[in-house]
Design brief:
Elements: H1 12-32, H2 51-76, H3 82-104, H4 106-115, H5 123-126, H6 149-159, H7 161-169, H8 174-183, H9 193-202, H10 217-235, H11 238-246, H12 248-268, H13 273-301, H14 307-334, H15 341-364
Helix pairs in contact: 1-2, 1-13, 1-14, 1-15, 2-10, 2-13, 3-6, 4-14, 9-10, 9-13, 11-13, 12-13, 14-15
Length: 385
């Protein structure tokens, strides 16, 4: 049953999950335009009920991406030493980040300043003369905005190199052996909730998420743990895939129950110490169960090659880099129009996907000098997995 999952073969299910998670990010960011939460631009009518499907995605989408990133690191390190891996991470994460901060993000800040009447003039009156005015965003104009994922991932990749190399060079080490034994038990894989619970319960209240690296200790510790989990679980090889496939339906039931409890607590209880510590447990159980569920069903149904996933897997990184800029430009022009939710949502989603696809297909994908600026290898050939 598990022959197709041997570690030397590419995990097409991970490709699918990565593409799906980043695809949902576009829908999520469009949703941010319509809900009460803080965002760069806001529609002229806010829909409070929309925050519930947003909360559902918000619980597991980002943790899933960091786990998948850790798993991808396991494959990336197979044929590289530490220095080669560090160089490749810098090239594929820091270079797009730097390019994005100077070229991709500024139009987002520009339309926000226009919408809030904080600037008047054309774009080239704003860029680059206003880019460094007032320092970093939100007081100033210089920011990495939605690209915050890249510096965090780069940080985790670099600081964990010694530990990752140790696991790679000693595949029979005590930690990997313990992981394989533990996840083979019916509920063994839920042991990984323990560190996540303590992080959520005791660190999150004191360090609000800011995505600025500085002072963002909850995000750093939590996401670094998830990244390391991805690498560690992949080092368990077939024990992990067997566990998530075998218990996928049970994990789905746990995930549905946990999310239902989370929503009940959200609308029924005032914040208190007891509520906080209970909610922290339900929260980590919820997103961990959804992650395991997704891995299990993807391993059964999506671990197959195809032209679409091959194309989408390469396109997803440029799509991630570009999408919010195109989206916010569209939002700026329709934010005050008296259209309904469905029409505006459709216009923004369709325009974002179409605009990003055109730029990717005609400019990024085909030009070897531009590809590295969007995190792509010069060659179009996908790396092995």
């Amino acid at each position: 049953m598990f022959v197709q999952n041997k570690i030397h073969m590419r995990r097409h299910d991970l490709d699918w999950l990565r593409v799906i998670a980043f695809g949902l990010l576009i829908f999520y960011h469009v949703g941010m335009f319509f809900v009460p939460w803080h965002f760069h631009l806001k529609n002229n009518h806010i829909y409070d009920w929309l925050r519930y499907p947003m909360l559902f995605l918000n619980q597991w989408r980002l943790p899933l991406l960091f786990v998948i990133s850790g798993m991808g690191t396991y494959f990336a390190l197979r044929k590289k030493n530490g220095w080669q891996f560090a160089g490749e991470r810098i090239l594929r994460l820091f270079v797009p980040l730097l390019f994005g901060m100077f070229m991709i993000v500024p139009p987002q800040v520009y339309v926000e300043r226009l919408a809030k009447h904080q600037f008047a003039g054309g774009y080239f009156d704003f860029w680059p003369s206003q880019l460094f005015t007032g320092g970093s965003y939100p007081a100033g104009n210089f920011s990495w905005h939605h690209l915050w994922f890249l510096p965090y991932l780069l940080l985790f990749s670099l600081i964990l190199i010694p530990v990752l190399l140790f696991i790679k060079k000693k595949p029979g080490n005590a930690l990997s052996a313990w992981v394989s034994r533990t996840i083979a038990r019916p509920f063994g894989i839920f042991v990984f909730l323990i560190p996540l619970y303590f992080i959520e319960a005791f660190i999150e209240p004191f360090f609000p998420v800011n995505h600025a690296l500085r002072g963002d200790w909850f995000t750093i510790i939590n996401c670094c743990t998830l990244f390391f989990y991805g690498y560690l679980l992949m080092s368990a090889r077939e024990a992990f895939w067997k566990a998530v496939i075998t218990y996928r339906k049970r994990n789905l039931i746990i995930a549905i129950i946990a999310f239902s409890l989370l929503m009940i607590m959200d609308v029924s209880f005032e914040d208190s110490y007891l509520v906080h510590f209970t909610e922290a447990l339900v929260k980590v159980l919820n997103f961990w169960a959804w992650i395991l569920t997704l891995f299990g069903f993807a391993a059964v149904h999506l671990n197959k090659a195809g032209k679409f996933i091959s194309y989408a897997n390469e396109a997803v990184y440029p799509f991630y880099i570009l999408h919010q800029t195109i989206m916010l430009i569209i939002c700026y022009f329709i934010m005050d129009l008296h259209y309904g939710l469905l029409l505006k949502f459709t216009i923004i989603v369709a325009g974002t996907f179409t605009g990003t696809l055109i730029i990717y297909e005609l400019l990024i994908r085909r030009w070897i000098l531009i590809r590295p600026l969007f995190g792509l290898k010069i060659s179009r050939k996908n790396d092995d997995r």
